């Protein structure tokens, strides 16, 4: 075939890898069809929210200074709230990352003496210093401000320990619980919105006043519903992941109950000002357009993850999720069991990236992480996880996490280059 000839001549991909990918694509037709159907429903949800809120060119006008009466900013909040079936939303370019966005939600609702409980095990690494699990005293963690923290480990199969959760909620006045939708640097299932809803109902039946906060990173638009539909008081995520559609240059969002979103806005700006101020500085157009593109871009990332699962499972590695599993986030985990193979995989993904393909990533001491981390990220937006990337902490059992892909075709190339590099070890 002309395509295979071009790939072999220009990227050095062997017949073995080309055949492996070709076989995977043939076996994944039904899975791809399912992903595309979800994308179409989500695209229609976005279209309806844009139409219902009368999005127009006037919403893209830049504001400066205090940003009073920024119609585009305020309408974008309403659009997000409608799509996420929430009472209110806070969408701002001022959020620098998912960690910053989630931190804002935690600081917004917690007060000295309150108890915070993570009911899905260890939180994502970069939240450890925010909570006060690690890091120096006096840096301003929740622990420094008198917030008590408890953590309920997951059961062996990766599911929440309901008995321990019930015991904790019964014997302590828990102000808030956190639920991490995606696996982070773990080896456990990603939870569906419905599963999260069942967990929230379990919590609320025992302790109705406990605030349920969901780290929704990597999960947006993977399903046709979000955790807010199922009772989440707050969800938070990053715009350089799924909902930014590869076009948002920075930012994050919080959605949920109106009162809690208001408290988040007070935390982001200041008490008494909240959502009323904050110039959009011309970012609105990219945030709107990125949201419009998000359902399609997310579907490209999911198809890429499914292909990666199939290829590397056929190469003999343990993968999670499996190629034919229903997906709840865009992340694909591959357990290599060998640091050299993890590094080779990430370096292969880097060579298949559109930006910095000539760079060779190496493990390094990354801020916020306890172990050295290797990251492959040839992205147009620095650190954008919706673009093809792969990262791994250099620690047993040496698992790499691949996510993203603005287009399936470009991500497919990265996967082929990584497979080729692996086969040559």
Tell me what the structure shows.
The two termini are 28 Å apart. The model has no long low-confidence stretch (mean pLDDT 96). The chain is built from 12 helices and 12 strands. The strands form 2 sheets. The protein has a 7-stranded mixed beta sheet with strand order 1-7-6-5-4-2-3, sandwiched between helices. A hairpin with a 5-residue loop joins β11 and β12. It is globular, with a radius of gyration of 21 Å. It is α/β, with parallel strands linked by helices and 425 residues long. The protein has helices at 2-11, 15-27, 29-52, 71-83, 98-109, 128-131, 162-171, 193-206, 258-268, 284-314, 339-351, 408-423; strands at residues 88-92, 115-118, 148-151, 176-180, 211-215, 234-238, 252-256, 318-320, 332-335, 373-377, 389-393, 399-403. Helices cover 40% and strands 13% of the residues. α3 crosses α4 (71-83), α5 packs across α9 (258-268) and α10 (284-314) packs parallel to α12.
Largest sheet, in brief, is: 7 strands, mixed
Q: Strands of the largest sheet, in order across it?
A: 1-7-6-5-4-2-3
Q: What is the percentage of strand-forming residues? A: 5-15%
**SSE-based structural type:** alpha/beta
Q: Total helix count?
A: 12
Spell out the helices and strands N to C: HHHHEHEHEHEHEEEHHEEHEEEH
| Unreliable stretches | none
- Based on CA atoms alone, the radius of gyration comes out at 21 Å
User: Can you count the beta strands?
Assistant: 12
Shape: globular
Map the helices and strands.
Layout: H1 2-11, H2 15-27, H3 29-52, H4 71-83, E1 88-92, H5 98-109, E2 115-118, H6 128-131, E3 148-151, H7 162-171, E4 176-180, H8 193-206, E5 211-215, E6 234-238, E7 252-256, H9 258-268, H10 284-314, E8 318-320, E9 332-335, H11 339-351, E10 373-377, E11 389-393, E12 399-403, H12 408-423
Parallel strand pairs: 2-3, 2-4, 4-5, 5-6
Antiparallel strand pairs: 1-7, 6-7, 8-9, 9-12, 10-11, 11-12
Helix pairs in contact: 2-10, 3-4, 3-10, 5-9, 7-8, 10-12, 11-12
